[in-house]
Design a protein that fits this description.
three-stranded parallel sheet, 3 strands, alpha/beta, 2 domains
Amino acid sequence: MSRKPLKKSIAIIGEGLTEWMYFDHIRKNRRYSFSLKPDLPKHSSYTYIFAKAEELCSKGFDIAFCVLDIDAILHENSLQEFRKACRKLPKRIVPITSNPCIEIWFLMQLCQVIISHIFQALLAQVKFQICNKKLLQYSLFL
């Protein structure tokens, strides 16, 4: 008798639309067979997100990842409270923070990709110019 492999259920709870779109993009492009639950959080506070994670774990999820922008917590001067709340979380709830916010990370990545493409285009143009000059020099000697 063969046993089926156990499936793990993972909850990913983000602060807003950007985080949800990011994980949905990964799911679609990598063809992962997971669904995003809940669809979108109603509030972006870490207390709400932690409470939602606890609720999802009590409903049968094996682990919950809470994706949070730490810059909002810093702006509200509630870093100490956030750290205390993180220490109280069960091991099945894992906070993941980004600083600066995830939108800035995406912008930085996009800029890096654009600069890389511009550099490659300039390099190709320089190589083309060098080849043309060498061909011109050879034709002068003929």
